[in-house]
Structures are given as C-alpha cells and as structure tokens.
Amino acid sequence: MVSYARERIKNLTDIQMNAEEFKKVVLTGIPDELPTKKAYDTSINHAPKRKEILTPAEKKLALRNALRYFPAKHHATLIKEFAEELNTCGRIYMYRFRPDYKIYARPIHEYPYKSIQAAAIMHMLSNNLDYAVAQHPHELITYGGNGAVFQNWAQYLLTMQYLATMTDEQTLVMYSGHPMGLFPSHKDAPRVVVTNGMMIPNYSKPDDWEKFNALGVTQYGQMTAGSYMYIGPQGIVHGTTITVMNAARKISKNEEERKGKLFVTCGLGGMSGAQPKAGKIAGLVAVVAEINPKATHTRHSQGWVDEVYDNLDQLITRIKTATTNREAVSIAYQGNVVDLWERLVRDDIQVDIGSDQTSLHNPWAGGYYPVGISFEEANKMMAEQPAVFKQHVQETLRRHAVAVNTLASKGMYFFDYGNAFLLEASRAGADIVKADGTFRYNSYVQDILGPMCFDYGFGPFRWVCSSADPKDLATTDQLALDVLEDMHRAAPDEIKQQLSDNITWIKDAMINNLVVGSQARILYADSEARIRIAAAMNKAIAEGKISAPVVLGRDHHDVSGTDSPYRETSNIYDGSAFTADMAVQNFVGDAFRGATWVSLHNGGGVGWGEVINGGFGMVLDGSADSDRRLRSMLFWDVNNGIARRGWARNEEALFAIKREMARTPELKVTLPNLVDDKLLDQV
Ligand SMILES: NC(=O)c1ccc[n+]([C@@H]2O[C@H](COP(=O)([O-])OP(=O)(O)OC[C@H]3O[C@@H](n4cnc5c(N)ncnc54)[C@H](O)[C@@H]3O)[C@@H](O)[C@H]2O)c1
User: Fold this and answer.
1) What global pTM score does this model have?
2) SS3 letters across 219-244
3) Is the CB of 146 under 6 A from ligand 1?
4) How many A from CA of 564 to the centre of ligand 1?
5) pLDDT per residue over 236-295, tens digit each?
6) How many helices (H) and strands (E) does the chain have?
7) What does the pLDDT look like over 526-541, one tens digit per residue?
8) Which atom in ligand 1 lies closest to the alpha carbon of residue 606?
9) How far is the CA of 295 from the centre of ligand 1 (A)?
10) Atom of ligand 1 at shortest distance to CA of 359?
C-alpha cells in the first residue's frame, strides 16, 4: 500500500492579503506596471503541453492577439515571454499576470462591488480557480483536462475589474473567457451572459479547438467550469452516488446482498475523483485506477480514497479480502487502468459493476493514457509525436474493450459513464458495436439517470452560501430536508424513491464532509422541489436566518440544459438526439426569466462538437424580486426538458408533464399521439 501524508493542498507561493489590499488589487485590473515574472511552480498540477498546431504565421497572429490586452510599452518584453509560453505549453496563459493573492470563494462582502449580484459571481468564479478545487489552476482549468474558466490571466483580471465596477443596469458579455465589455441593460436582465466555444458548425472538430484556442479566440468551457458553477467533487459525488447505487440496484434489489460487491472503474480527476467516495457510500468495494500520481494524492489527502496500491499483486489480495469480508471501502490503483482490467481477467476475479471515467472527450491531449508507456513519456509523446500517440491510445482502447467484454460475458454489468468511452473505443475499431449499429453497453443515462431522474424532472440542483459560513449551509440543508420530507408524504409512487434517496443524502451531507471550496450543496430535485427549496431559502434570507445571499444553480448535466446524444439525451429515441434546440431554448428562456447569469457551451462531457449545453446562476437576496424570478425561471428550466422528453414519447416524462399541466393551468404542452407497433409493422 502506498502511504501519503494527509495534508491539505495549498499554494506555497500565495501571499496572504488583507481584504482592503485585495479590493484595491481587483479594482486595478491589468496593472499598468508589469508585475514581476513568476517562476514555473512545479508543485502544482499543470495542463499538459498542447500539440503544435499553428503555422509560423498563425503563431504571429496568436502573439498579436495576446498583446492586444496590454499597452505598446510592454510589448517588447511580453512578446518574448508569450512566444516562449506558446512554444513550451502550446498556449499563451500569461503566467506573469497570475495574481499574488490567494484565489478562493471569499465571503461575498470581501469583494469590491456596486452590484451584489456581480459580487456573487466573483465568489463563484473564484471558487473555480481555487487551488483546492481546480485541476490546473495556473492554466485556469477547473476540470476535465481542458475545462477552462478563462484562456489567460489578462481575461481574469479584466473580468474581475468589470464585475467589481458594474451596476445592476449593466450586463457583462463574455466571449469564451474574453470579457467583451459592459453593455447597458436593466435590473431584470442577466448580469453576465457567457458563451464558450460557440463555432460555425463546420469548424467544430477537435483540431479546430486546438487551433482556435491556441490563437486565443475560443475556449472549451466544459460545463460548470466556464460557467462559474463548479462546486468541487461534491457535485459529482451526489450524481455518482445516485448512479452507482442504482447500478447496484440493477444487479440486486436487496441491500444486504449488495454489500461487498466489486465496482471497478478509472479516474481520480476533477469529476471522476468522486467515484471511490460514491462506491463506498453505496456499500461497495470500489477500485479506481489512476495514472497521474498527483490526482491520486489529491483524492487520498481529501479522504475520498481510503487506500492506494501501486502493486497489482497486493491489490488483488486486498480486493479478495474486501469482497470476502463484504467491506465498504474505496481503493485506488496507481497505474494504468488497462493493466488493472487485464489482471482482473487473468486472475478470473468476479467484477460486479464496471465503468470508466477517463477524459475520453479529449483523447489526444491527455484525457486517456496509453498502456505500457509511463505517464511522463506519454505527456511528451502527445506533444511531440501526436500521430504515434494516437495509435497507442487506440490500441489501448481496443485492449480495454477486450478485457471489459470478457468480464461482461461473466456477468459484470458495465455502463458508459458519459465520457465518450464507447464512442472513442468504437472509433478505434474496438469490438464494442452490435450488429444493429448500437453499442454493446448502455450509457448511465439510458439505463439509470434518464428514466429514473431526468424524465421526471429530477436533476442536480445546487446552491452556494455566499457568506462562506458553514452555519448558513446547515440552515439551508434543514430547509431542503423539510421540503423533501413534506413532498415525500404526498408523492406518487413514481417519484418516492428519488425523494427518499435525496432525503438520505441531505441528512448525511454534513456528516459526509463534502465541501471542498465554497459552502455548496447539491441534491437531485424536480421543479416543485427546486422552487419550494429556493423560496424557503429566500424567505430565510429576508428573515435574517441566513446571513448573506445564496446562489442557485445546477450542473449543465440536467433535464433541459444539455443536448448530448451520447450522454444527457442518449435516452431520446425519436431522432432528435442530434438536435440542440432544447439546450439553446433553455439558455434563452432562463435569460429572460430572471437568471443572474446564463451560459451556453459547445462541448462539455463528451467533447467539442458533440454537445451543446447551458447553465445559469441565480442570486437570491431575500427580496420580492428574487422570489418572482426564482418561480418563473426554475419552472421553465426543468419543464422545458420534460416537455421535450415527453414529445420524444418517454413514458416517465409524459407522466411528469401531464402532472405539471394539471397543477399549472398556464402550461400547455404539445403531447404526442402514440402509434400502434402493429400498424407500423404492416408498412
Ligand atoms: N458522468 C458524469 O456525470 C460526468 C460528469 C462530468 C464529467 N464526466 C466525464 O468524465 C470524464 C472525466 O472527467 P474528470 O473531470 O474526472 O476528468 P479528469 O481529466 O480530471 O480525470 C480523468 C482522470 O483519468 C486519468 N486517466 C486517463 N487515462 C487513464 C488510464 N489509461 N489509466 C488510468 N488513469 C487514467 C487521468 O489521469 C485523469 O486524472 C470526462 O470525459 C467528463 O466529461 C462525466
């Protein structure tokens, strides 16, 4: 077993700054005098070098683009530095301009502001760049290997300055991390409108991202990274717990029988790091492979992984003991997942549940590491020999699929975890496609989240207490629990399980110590629960029971926010899974119903060009305006997707939308007429 000291990860280079100094620095924006050049900090997890993609002329364009943030007097100094960054990192991050203060979700009143809504946005985006939260903080990447908040530090500094000075009569417009500026608007308009990676459709291939991102004109926002709504691994622990628990229910309904079942998967990164914790909460022996020692260390030091092994002999012995003793335990394998899978096959170990959460939305730039090559060598190869690297990745995917197929033939339940594993394995020629062209395995949305949650309107609602005070979070937990328990008493059978799973979750949330970064909470709720919980929190703010505004939001991975045919909408079977009307309508509809900020992204989860997704943030300040906005926007934000899922003939969504129409006379949704199969068979 590998042992690590359990220290909290901190950035040794940060200097402590008092609140007044911090405010002054934020208001300065891009400083007129150049800050001192910073040494490359090797204690931090850095983004891999991006591949060489620009021609010499395009490199000049990238430099010209970068320098437009600075007065001409600095160009001669900065051009050399930026050219070096472009050559060594493949991007211009402008490291020199990284602020000296520690970035984290400070209590809201510590930010300089004229608009409290804008201060709440600073609180949220700072959390996305907190060292304890972000995957590659110096490259402004929150999760997923390339999920960026900004492309460079100049954009960060300018955005903070705009937010600190804007009023409730202005809207800040964000083009893929670049603050285009403040435009006059009105108090009911969003304070910020974010778009990330929006491309002319024909220019949305992975290499287009490499090129246009290197030029500094677009970015991959993932989902909650580019929309300032990331809440650390808690966000995904909950969704993962729901998924893994229901996957376990698929192999056995009996809780006692499920104890000690073996769950094998991969990834301890930004999102995937939640898997061991979720597996343990679900009572399983969770074994998770991870190639990057820094990622393993992070999850172990946060207590999300109980034990770490880098020796397969020892690991196999430990797995046998854990399953025999029916332990609930989380174990990391420090190494390549394909070595693990092949060893499990060789030793004929019975795996009950299998999945994978490597970053296969980004297979050629560090999302998936080839077997038989060290982590360091692979990082070098992907930048210097991209074609060879691609071959290794595809070969690894084929071996990966062979091992999974073998164990599945012995009874393992395998599901695709929304990371494009099946898609990329099929593109690599792996034996993963059935004769009818569909995949051998279903996605977790097809089997679990779609029919059990999204179609009923249950999705990852979340909130953040901008006071940064855990006492406020405890108050909101209690309010949410009261609402869920009240709803459970009168709920139809179809949604009783979802409510009771979330009641258990919220009761244990504090004990499970889930907060990393901002004081945030997530739970799965339908539109009624979201509205009732939000209204109760708004009232509690007005009554002084919660000390500062609360920010509402959700993961983009939800009922209505995302059109993604291999993930969120993989259980849409009327052909419309390849359209993106729902996500775009949702973004627009949220914007005019009172969201404080809205975002629309190309890419997120399964890769650039493969998904359109959006999200929102809404600041509750205890006012009547907040109450009006939350009711209008949350209703739309859930029911838009249920209506579409119902129109696609999904039974559960039809149940939910009819129930909503019975409750809300102003809602009138077009319902599908169902065709008798026999009639179609005769054609
Ligand atoms: N299912 C969901 O709800 C959901 C939600 C968010 C993200 N995702 C998807 O899951 C994927 C992972 O997200 P993330 O934020 O954790 O990304 P990440 O890049 O932070 O983590 C992936 C981890 O996998 C490791 N890895 C890659 N190849 C490996 C290999 N061959 N062997 C061992 N380890 C390997 C990487 O080192 C990395 O730490 C993404 O594609 C993301 O889009 C799914």
Assistant:
1) 0.88
2) CCCCCCCCCCCCECEHHHHHHHHHHH
3) no
4) 17
5) 888 899 999 999 988 888 888 999 999 999 999 988 999 999 999 889 999 999 999 999
6) 24, 17
7) 999 999 999 999 999 9
8) 43
9) 11
10) 41
